[in-house]
Write a structure and sequence with these properties.
single chain, alpha/beta, Rossmann fold, UDP-N-acetylmuramoyl-L-alanine:D-glutamate ligase, Protein-Tyrosine Phosphatase, Chain A, 3 domains, 6-stranded parallel β-sheet, 6-stranded mixed β-sheet, 16 helices, 19 strands, 22% strand
Length: 456
């Protein structure tokens, strides 16, 4: 796309990773860039200044918004602030980082969204395509901003992008060749005003697709199917128990069914990560990679080598027969349900954090059928207790260390403790990764304490 920011006054709102990356990209493209952030100080301020990027910290100046030629909000910055309203009234375009970076890409885009499973599916899709010999850049919400990959983009590059609702809500021309919607359930209601607004943001992944593109959709997720209904792209269905054409599991293999024929691609035994929902992610990645031209052997090799992502159903340790599993990435109620359903019995769930919507009562069936207990932590602990306390055992813990020790005391021999918070981490931790690391460290300390006790 012929898009230029040469000489334009561009205001980047938010100085986290994506904001810094897009500010540097804009500066390289000749824009006059200012970064504004409510924090009084940011890391890397000197590096930005050395590139000619101005900084305004400690708050937002509305006059700066209305005087800009273009505003680029970072993902997660709330767009209902008065300064944005004033900019819109002044006719200033507001374009998100994902949208802006995509305008300069030379390669094709494979975009993946969904309430749960984005990171696993995105990572594995990229590895499948790399095993097939493609030039692949994996980025977006997964940790590498798309803006930092623009200069590496070639006509032969496949950009595998994890796209969050915050990134998608500020897209306009963003055009994935392959768009995948893994699932949909209420989430991020602390940021989006309604479930409908959240759904509308997710749906934008299909907005610019044409009949020459592909839409990979979970046929077993009815809300997701509904959001994909309007796309003119060619449908590629997948599901764990799909009955018709598409990608599914049959006879111990992930297979592709087409016109009555069934091609085995990956043995299920090659999947080394716990959880039915992880298997669904592997089927999704297989569907996406195969649609993009990956060879069956390369797909199988990538799955065999994949040991999961940190904080996603990650086995931390086994302490005196009790398994501890870190699923800190389960940051909403639906994700927590999938974690719970990955363990058949003798389960203790560590749950809680900063509440961001959803109904914990939706977990009751999965918990009661497994005879599960819950240890509630964080700001949401009272909500967890109110929702679940009458039907399952619920204890409250003040710290992660207390939660780990309490869960170990409750767990029966041969049982499993899963950190499946169903909430964000921001009440107690910087992010889900710090929360997961804290859980793992407390488990390691518990293991050391129990070992020392046995040796005395």
């Amino acid at each position: 796309m012929d898009f230029s920011v040469e000489g334009r006054r561009v205001l980047v709102v938010g100085a986290a990773r994506s904001g810094v990356a897009v500010a540097e990209l804009l500066a390289r493209r000749g824009a006059r860039v200012t970064v504004t952030d409510i924090k009084p100080a940011i890391d890397g301020a000197g590096t930005l200044a050395a590139q000619g990027i101005a900084l305004e910290l400690g708050g937002h100046d509305e006059a700066r918004f209305t005087a800009a030629d273009l505003i680029v909000p970072s993902p997660g910055v709330k767009l209902d602030q008065p300064a944005f309203a004033a900019a819109r009234a002044a006719g200033v375009p507001i374009v998100g980082e994902l949208e802006l970076a995509s305008r300069w890409l030379k390669g094709r885009v494979i975009a993946i969204t969904g309430t749960k499973g984005k990171s696993t599916t995105t990572t594995l899709t990229g590895q499948m395509l790399e095993h097939s010999g493609a030039h692949v850049l994996v980025g977006g919400n997964i940790g590498v901003p798309l803006s930092s990959q623009v200069d590496q983009s070639t006509p032969g590059t496949l950009h595998v992008i994890e796209a969050s609702s915050f990134q998608l809500e500020t897209t306009d021309t963003f055009h994935p060749w392959i768009a995948a919607l893994l699932n949909f359930s209420p989430d991020h209601l602390d940021q989006h005003p309604t479930v409908e607004a959240y759904a509308a943001a997710k749906q934008r992944i299909f907005q610019r697709q044409t009949a020459d593109d592909f839409a990979v959709v979970n046929a077993e997720d009815l809300p997701g199917r509904a959001l994909a209904r309007a796309t003119p792209a060619r449908r590629v269905p997948y599901g764990l128990e799909l009955s018709g054409d598409g990608f599914t599991v049959d006879g111990g293999h992930i297979v592709e069914r087409k016109g009555g024929a069934s091609e085995p691609i990956v043995p299920v035994s090659a999947v080394h990560v716990l959880g039915r929902h992880i298997l669904s992610d592997v089927v999704a990645a297989t569907a996406i990679a195969r649609t993009a031209g990956a060879r069956a052997g390369a797909i199988a090799a990538a799955v065999e080598a994949f040991r999961g992502l940190p904080h996603a159903m990650q086995l931390v340790a086994t302490v005196e027969g009790v398994r501890f599993v870190n699923d800190s990435k389960a940051t909403n109620v639906e994700a927590a349900r999938r974690s719970i359903e990955s363990v058949e019995r003798d389960l203790v769930v560590v749950m809680g954090g900063r509440y961001k919507g959803g109904d914990f009562r939706d977990l009751l069936q999965a918990l009661t059928t497994r005879g599960a207990s819950v240890v509630a932590i964080g700001e949401a602990a009272p909500i967890v207790v109110d929702a679940l306390g009458g039907a399952v055992r619920v204890e409250r813990a003040a710290t992660m260390g207390d939660a780990v020790r309490m869960a170990f005391a409750i767990a029966p021999p041969g049982g499993t403790v899963v950190l499946a918070p169903g909430c964000s981490s921001f009440d107690m931790f910087r992010d889900y990764a710090e929360r997961g690391e804290a859980f793992a460290e407390e488990v390691r300390q518990l293991a050391g304490t129990r070992r020392a006790t046995r040796e005395q």
